[in-house]
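Sample pair:
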Amino acid sequence: MKKAQIVIGLGFGDEGKGITTDFLAQQNPDAIVIRFSGGQQAAHTVMIDDKKHVHSSFASGALRGLPSYYTEHCTIHPTFLFNEREELIEKNGNTELHIHPLAKITTPFDVWQNRKNVKNLEHGTCGKGVGATMKRHESPYKLFAIDLIAPRQMLIEKLKGIAYFYGFLDGSQIEEELNAFLEAIDKLEWKISDYNYLKSFDHLIFEGSQGILLDMDHGVFPNVTYANTTSKNAFEVCKFLNIEDIEMFYVTRNYSTRHGNGWMSNEREIILKNNEEETCVFNEYQKELRFGDLDYDLLNYALQLDGAYVSAKKKNLVVTCLDQTDAEFQPKKLNIKLDAIYGSYSPYSKDFRRLSHSH
């Protein structure tokens, strides 16, 4: 019987999906970890003994030794992918990555658009080109993973078209950007595999990106991400593979966070301890990480909303960063039935504990 476990963030991202995925990977070393939304903007941190890796272009089982798969709903930037691959090789991680033929490819021109567009900067961007890539794919100027193994001149013509789409007219500048981009493509072995590839695995771990409150259909527009951050995409893959044994792992910190512009409830300054390994630090696009008290009404909203997209046999909650504040998590404020609540008390998944059974 095939089984799927789906990891979903309940907030605005940065909840602890990486550590939760590693927790499941440790228990299921023969599984594959599947990213089903977002792309290179992810910053999912995993720490194992003296090794630490921030997973962006690889799923968060890679440091643990599990292979990665990116679905058609994800974006891939070959240069970022190559750089992270080199980091993982140094750490003896697993660099096997299979990509759906229709995954979307981010180009240097998309990154430029993300970083220079005034509206993007106002609405919030991580500067990695993901939003621009998704927006461009609403136009005729598309670029898919399958195009990376197409005849080279065809790929070049598509890339030139994308450059012109964004208003690049300087031929020498286009040539310079293309040469570096094509060089990264040539350094990688591309494993383009549709969903039938996943049939060889009995255990699948689906790793979400960002959080439900940033979902393109359910977040507060315009400060949303160009992705379905609910279980929608993961559940569609499960249906294709005829997987009915689905277990959910919904993730939240013990306090609220938001990295970027937009509405946030209960926002206030919070003094944290034991947060030396925080990945979400200041950058020029998202600025400082914002904090607030945990909003249980929003947790209930996100839990009920995701239930509209997925049919699961088990639903669990993971509360991370319990060692960073003195606030006690209050499960009585949740109105969704849960099979178990787990808590993490350090940046290491080995320090996960089961806090309670059926709620």
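The first helix runs from residue 17 to 27.
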